[in-house]
What we know:
alpha+beta, Arc Repressor Mutant, subunit A, three-stranded mixed β-sheet, 6 strands
Amino acid sequence: MAKTFRRTRQRESVRAVIEAASRPLRADEVLLLAQEQVPELGLATVYRTLKLLVEEGELNEVKLRSGATRYESIQRDHDSYFLCDSCSRAFPVDTSISNELALPAGFMMRRRELTLLGTCPACNETLIKQHA
Length: 132
């Protein structure tokens, strides 16, 4: 039998932030956004809540090259991301690579994960201004 966890203001604010996000978020990003609704919210509570939501099957953990785990709703489960070298934000990328084209003969793929590295538009703009 699956556990059901009490719905608290803190948990609901974390859930709402993840649901509203257009990209997977790190725990520190969730904290900053959720504190707009619940100013007293702490990082330990965010981590506990994220863990509970993963256990409940509401969130997926996104582990990318940068090492920081990110979280996104299971409704937005992506397999490809753009990771900004400058700000470390991750953005989902729609890809159309065929599984058959990507696999050597005889291999059977269970899941595909692709991470593209570079800089996002906001960081590009900052870099351009710094060099102008």
